[in-house]
Amino acid sequence: MAFSSISNSEKSKPRKSESRKSDHVAPPAEMWQSSIGKKILTGVTGLGLVTFVVIHALGNLTLFFSAPTFNYLAYVIERLRPLLYLVEFSLLGLLLIHIAIGIRLYVGKRSARRIAYTAYESAGAPSRQTLASRTMIFSGLLLGVFLIWHLATFKFGPVYRVPGSTDRDMARLVFETFQQPIYTASYVIVLGFLGLHLRHGFWSALHSLGVATKPSVFMGSDDLGRAISIAIKGLPIAIYFGLLG
Amino acid sequence: MTLNARIPDGPLTEKWDKFKDHCKLVNPTNKAKHTILVVGTGLAGASAAATLAEQGYQVKSFCIQDSPRRAHSIAAQGGINAAKNYPNDGDSVWRLFYDTIKGGDYRSREANVYRLAQISNQIIDHCVAQGVPFAREYSGLLTNRSFGGAQVSRTFYARGQTGQQLLLGAYGAMMRQVAAGRIELFPRRELLDFAVIEGQARGIVVRNLLTGAFERYAGDAVILATGGYSNVYYLSTNGKNSNVTAAWRAYKRGALFANPCFTQIHPTCIPVASEFQSKLTLMSESLRNDGRVWVPKKAGDKRKANDIPEGDRDYYLETRDPTFGNLVPRDVASRNAKQVIDEGRGVGKTGLAVYLDFRDAIASQGKDAIAARYGNLFDMYQRITGEDPYEVPMRIYPAVHYTMGGLWVDYHLMSTVPGLFVLGEANFSDHGANRLGASALMQGLADGYFIIPYTLGDYIATSDMEPVETDHDAFGEAEASARARTLKLLSIQGDKTVLRFHQDLGQLIWNGVGMSRSRKQLEQTIADVRSLRAEFWQNLLVPGEANTLNKNLEFAGRVADFMELGELMARDALAREESCGSHFRSEYQTADNEAQRIDEQYSTAAAWKYTGDEQPPERFSEPLTFENVKLTQRSYK
Amino acid sequence: MKINLSVWRQENSQSDGSFYNYTIENVQSDLSFLELLDMLNEQLMAKGEIPVEFDHDCREGICGSCGMMVNGQAHGPQKKTAVCQLYMRNFKDGDTVTLEPWRATAFPVIKDLVVDRSAFDRIVAAGGYVSVKTGSAPDANAVLVKKTDADQAFDYATCISCGACVAACPNASASLFTAAKISHLALLAQGNPERKQRVVKMTQQMTAEGFGDCSNHGECQAVCPKGISIDAIAQMRREYIRTKLPFG
User: Fold this and answer.
1) Is C28–B134 a contact, with Cβ atoms under 8 angstroms apart?
2) Is the ipTM of this complex over 0.90?
3) Is there a contact between A7 and B184 if contact means CB atoms under 8 Å apart?
4) Are strands B214-218 and B200-208 parallel, antiparallel or unpaired?
């Protein structure tokens, strides 16, 4: 009998008003297990990461002004080292939570439907199901791998010095890197996946945080994902095709 | 047998309070020692189960659906009446009582109906507190509408889904008790027999519809809330699983069945389109406020509706009754439709429909005004028929959708079998010969939330009963008979399916015990149903096994009972030699073709006693006395 | 017209299932989809075969009994329509239609197209109600509810518990079902006192039943026969966030 499990467990744990009271403020740790808590954590960490990506992209755009501006920005960031560590550790934390929950969601989804449909088709609008939404785990994992590569190339890559200074010449590294065709092409492709991830991710994060999102927000999220992706792709493409001096 | 309705003494307005003041109570600590079996989880069953569990009884709740929330109360559209008088338009408990008893054409008990009207207000309070989202004004207050021709606005509603919202409220209350361990749920179980021990209903035998197992449950009382029997007509607005089996098994165990011929036919349903049509869909009768009903003047006119000029149209309701026109009562509208169709003037592919035309309303009020009022109904019509009612007239046809008859119960809602209580549509109690719109939900919830908790307590407190176990002989005998019957259905292996038998039965009952009845036709119907029943037991084809989910087997058992009920309906209609409410005997009509009551003889409830499969049942009468209202002949002129 | 059906047949929850192909001739366009299955079953029984089992009752889109994947879409191609109200005029002569049961670990197949949705009942049992005792309510008009809130609550309350949201969700999540009940009660003053424990307990039960988590695909709102919006899910999340706030 399907219901005996409920009634039995409830019987052994009589409902008292005191025990109810404790439900009112669920402990924060409970979020890690909760279906909604997980989404809130994903959303918050995702928004944190996307904020970083936007700032990073804006910083990159300074290279369109001049190499010295770009290097100066790198220099300023370098000088804020204690703060930088704090930011880096925070980002690492956000990232690990984001990835861990992402993987759990995927595993959970697989076990929630063990036999796949033979025929399956989205019903179309107002469904929000897109290529982006269906591939979050793959685009996300790809971005994770990319991140390591990206850090290895730039943050932990060759150290050039600005001529006549001890400051690091990041601009030169960037120019040299994006003159390699295969590197540039794969970089641009991966950033396409970042765009894809954000096109669903940004909207989804807002919804996970309880914002009742209108279709316009959904469309806006889509546009924002593309915009960020294009803004970041702009730099390597411009460098590769020699549009920047 | 004399039928004692056990109505409390005293003035009408004080009877219920007096009963509550003096009925016996069960000690709170003792309630948990009593198991109550509640069969059915519609409005009446769910509300009863929830309330009895709240009071501390151990409740076992059974339903044939996979979840209690799917009982057919869910499909009720219109609303629920109450005498709140929020609109300040002159309503009162007395008026609701009076309208209900008059609407029932004086074939119900004064005391029951008055109690119903009294309780109506508490129902609204309770349902609102449960979170039922009734329609509201911008002030935040509840709003009401007038329904079914009532002169006051006393109907509370939740768009066109009032039944759903009320049922979900009761279901929620039930599930709360499930979580608290005071209700144990048994979905996908079908009641097949009762254990009657020392004259008291002490248990039930059900078939587990998934495994086919026969299961026994013992208790101190059994509450049947298993709905009506409209599906005896095959096509009706009821859900496909609605059936009479539980009530019929009770009848065979000694409970009397009252007024089976009182069945209500609703005039505005979407007509039958094909041989395999399985069900009829009701559309709110509010459509008749703006739609005009007509058929061609000439029989066999096959022109398209819009090609028939004004002069060739017969707006027959407006012609026959200039005052009420298209708003005549349900039964009058239905009967007139049947009459013009019998004259060969029906419309549509099958000829079994009349037009309900909004052309003039759209012309005078604009399409937007009509869309605002009926948009969702028009959409529903279009989805089902593929026709756009803004462009071509709707086609409508009457359909059975409620049965006033049911198991006979006294004022305590107890049947003639002690310990067997019957609530909601399954009993015969409050609607007489005709039910008013928005009264079914009211009755189901009154019975379950507010009446049974008192009357059941009184029964438990005043009855002597020994504990019983399910190994008692009565259970063994009940299970053996249920099992034998089920296996018999499988063993016939003829070549006609349940669906075909059900269709044939429906046709017989519709023609014989439908909108208009006559002695000759009723006698023929009895003979025809008997021979169909004989054919059924000779030539039925049920495939598959008994020990698995087998819906054809379930349906076969239900149709077998409908076969027997159909005969009883015809007998009841034959024995009631008058017309009243929904029961129209063509021999008894006024000069204006109105129902002609014969009060001296038939101001009674007829209750039938089962005497064996081969003997005719015995008819008993409960006289209905009217001390507070004056009997009038209905006239809509 | 002629319709080819490819139907998932499965004897019981333990056994493996597979697709069977059937052809039905002379299908009228004003037949409902379930009536097509009735026709199929009559045809099967005439040949001495076992009919296809499917849940159904009201056949007017309100009881929520019926439901199956029709060509990969929950309840078939017509929006805001349960499969019982899907008519054959939506199909063409010679069409092949694939029918599968709802697939979710929390909805085990019972037989053919029939699945066990009792998980939904247990989610409601965890808190999908207002704990009011019969007879204890104040006058119905004693508590005012803003019309806009009442209307919104009604929209959420129309859920028929059919399970299409779970079936269509790529994650087999029951979030729309659970959120519809939580949001319905959260919008009404009557549901207020229990709102915090309600959202916690119902969502815990949802997870315990083995449903997946929501990824905001929004597929559920596209297949819901009552057109319930995923705004309900956003509301449920706001309710949850409240539980983390001491004065929410």
Assistant:
1) no
2) yes
3) yes
4) antiparallel
